[in-house]
Amino acid sequence: MRKLVSFMHISLDGFTTDSNGTMNWIKVDEEMFEYAGKRTNASDTALYGRNTYQLMEDYWPTAADQPNPTKHDIEHSMWYKNVNKVVVSTTIKNAGSANTVIIRKDLPGEIRKMKQGIGNEIIMFGSPSLAHSLMEENLIDDYWLFVNPILVGQGIPLFKNIRQITALELISSQVFASGVVCLHYELK
């Protein structure tokens, strides 16, 4: 069975965005890109909510073609172009990229089918509303939480409306020079 892996930046107080819906407080650097890139490359399917997908589509298809692209821009752009993308949306009419499928209904059923299918891991970047829906159904197998050393006070929390006790096991942790800590948890 394929795993569904969630990659999420959060504040120390557990928010994915601040009260204005922004994430400009998130710290990222080459050290983190290198670390996360190894993990990302193990996945052959990317799962996105509509907002995150639109942000990705606006940047990654041509990131490597921009003047002075970083190593991360080149590598992630290539990965993005080739990865199978699944977008959860009732409003997007057409997929922007090749290799893109849109889920419009029966999210839990469609995700269960994906997990039963052939392939490597399914990775979900950001998409807190989608994460909430998947958590309700206990469909996320791994959490990679990039905890940023900041308190934002209000915003979209990562964990909300949890209806059942869900035991997790800490698999690894990584401290970055920026002060961000990556915590990797698996379902027990």
Low-confidence stretches: none
Task: Give, in order, the helices and strands.
Answer: EHEHHEEHEHEEE
| Superfamily (CATH H level) name of the domain at 4-10 and 42-147 | Dihydrofolate Reductase, subunit A
Described by strand count, sense and barrel closure, the largest sheet is: 8 strands, mixed
Characterization of the model:
This protein is α/β, with parallel strands linked by helices and 188 residues long. The chain has 5 helices and 8 strands; from the N terminus they run βαβααββαβαβββ. The chain has an 8-stranded mixed beta sheet with strand order 4-3-2-5-1-6-8-7, sandwiched between helices. It is globular and about 35 Å long. The two termini are 16 Å apart.
Main attributes of the structure:
single chain, 188 residues, alpha/beta, Dihydrofolate Reductase, subunit A, 8-stranded mixed beta sheet
Summarize the structure.
The protein is built from five helices and eight strands, in the order βαβααββαβαβββ. It is of the alpha/beta class and 188 residues long. The chain is globular.
Helices and strands, with pairings:
Elements: E1 4-11, H1 30-40, E2 43-49, H2 50-59, H3 71-82, E3 84-88, E4 100-103, H4 107-116, E5 121-125, H5 128-136, E6 142-148, E7 168-175, E8 181-187
Parallel strand pairs: 1-5, 1-6, 2-3, 2-5, 3-4
Antiparallel strand pairs: 6-8, 7-8
